[in-house]
Amino acid sequence: MPKLTRVHARQILDSRGNPTIEVDAWSDQGLCGRAAVPSGASTGSREALELRDGDKKCFQGKGVLKAVSNVNEVLGPYITEEKKFQVNDQVGLDRAMIDLDGTEYKSKLGANALLGISLAVARLGAQTSKLPLYKYLREVLKCPHPTEKYVMPTPLMNIINGGAHASNNLDIQEFMIVPCMAKSFAENLRAGVEVFHSLKKVLDKAGHSTNVGDEGGFAPNLKSHEEAIESVLKAIELAGYRPGVDVALSLDCAASEFYQEKTQLYSMQGKDFTTEEMIEYYSGFLKKYPIYSIEDGLAEGDQKGWTALNSRLGSQVVLVGDDLFVTNKKILAHGIEMKQANAILVKVNQIGTLTETFETMDLAFRNKMVNIVSHRSGETSDHFIADLAVATSAGHIKTGSASRSDRMEKYNQLLRIEEELGQAAVYHPVRVGRK
Q1: Which end of the chain is more exposed for a tag (fewer CB within 10 A), N or C?
Q2: 364 and 292 housed in the same domain
Q3: Do the domain assignments include residue 267?
């Protein structure tokens, strides 16, 4: 098997115009794999550290030249000169980098530095094996997957942005649609795109702005969260689909962003809510609207609240932990023990290596949790997560709206993969809320 001979990092720009890191990895055969690292706006406090320079005179402190230097001067020489890894030894490579960093949250060398190498080497391995990336992840790296068949993911498409992803008055961060017709990924994507364009007409008619937010969804100022949901329902019907049958709804509340730790209250839409009142608020939504999933419905620190939320609503809706679990196996294990949620959002940069991502997904699969492979609000044209979603048969991908090329590239890669696989199965959500 060819050996890893060189890695090289550079600073590039993400979809928000902020610096991020890109890594090239070479083998002794002269092949090269490349990967770019995404960045989040709404982040969990226990995420692996995204190393930034902090120099306010350069990119307002958001430069990543320290992380670049850690790849080029520390990690690179270590894994190519001292260790001399074969390109398919993903576990050995990732473990060596984790050990060299030596901190719980990769705060010494930076999770962005480690992840850039981890993903670039996986791409290099796929090229060396002459396999598409998704097949390499499954057939060579033996990524976890709950079914032997490849399954195309059902998308969760963010079509109204709020919270930290938009400069508007909506506290809930994402209002999403879930096309779930079980025909093909291409058909579900088409439905999502048609609903997105129909929503523009609905918002235009109501006199609202149709500017887009970080993830490509519209970012209007609306009177309430209910108005946002009603607008999406109108768009679904205008596009010729049935709400709750053909297309369901999904919410990413990002509740940590409006949780007041001192008072333990949630300040939302001009009111304060206790944990129990938030649970009742969501219960009212489930009675009224065809909601498939609720992500980060409570703050990550509201640990007992999550158990109460899952106990009350877990049989009715997919409850997704993002900030709650941060793609961390140890934290997820605690959440499973506490019965806090029935689904996990998977973000590779929350944990910092591909190997650790696999371990977390495996634990979730073994505990019958829904896995949703996700982008970040600061993205690049890298489509690695599209291949990851298919390789693991995760069932869902969350990668933004039907606009902005950084989002569309993931969808386009899934179209290519589906064409290659032919009649691949499409994940069909069991629960899509009230009809």
Answers
A1: C
A2: yes
A3: yes
Q: Which of 347, 298, 337 is nearest to 319 (CA)?
A: 298
In a domain? residue 326:
yes
The secondary element (H helix, E strand) that includes residue 116 is helix 111-129
Most confident stretch, 213-227, 325-339, 394-408, 417-431: 325-339
pLDDT by residue (tens digit) across 106-163? 999 999 999 999 999 999 999 999 999 999 999 999 999 999 999 999 999 999 998 7
207 and 72 in a common domain: no
Boundary (domain end) residue, out of 65, 97, 130: 130
Strand partners, 276: none
φ/ψ of residue 433, rounded to 5 = 75, -165
Q: Which residues are catalytic?
A: 215, 347
Residue 277 sits in the same domain as residue 307 = yes
Which of these three, 130, 162, 187, is where a domain ends?
130
The domain tally of the chain equals 2
* pLDDT for residue 44 is more than 80: no
Which domain does 56 fall in, by range?
A: 4-130
- Give the pTM: 0.95
Token reading at 422: 């032919």
DSSP 49: P
Measured CA to CA, the distance from residue 84 to residue 100 in angstroms comes to 15
Q: Do 155 and 189 meet the contact criterion of CB atoms below 8 Å apart?
A: yes
- Among residues 285, 286, 283, 360, which one has the least CA distance to residue 321? 360
Cα separations in angstroms, 361 against 251, 333, 354? 22, 11, 11
At residue 149, what is the residue type?
K
Report the alpha-carbon angle 271-273-278, nearest 5: 125
Distance of alpha carbon 94 from the chain centroid: 21
Instruction: Tell me: do 232 and 345 sit in the same domain.
Output: yes
Of 236, 169, 160, 144, the C-alpha closest to 198 is 236
Residue partners of 4: CB distance under 8 A and separation at least 6: 25, 26, 27, 79, 80, 84, 85, 86, 87, 93, 121, 124
Give CA–CA dist 158/288, Å, rounded: 20
CATH of the domain at 412: 3.20.20.120
Coil vs helix vs strand at 154:
strand
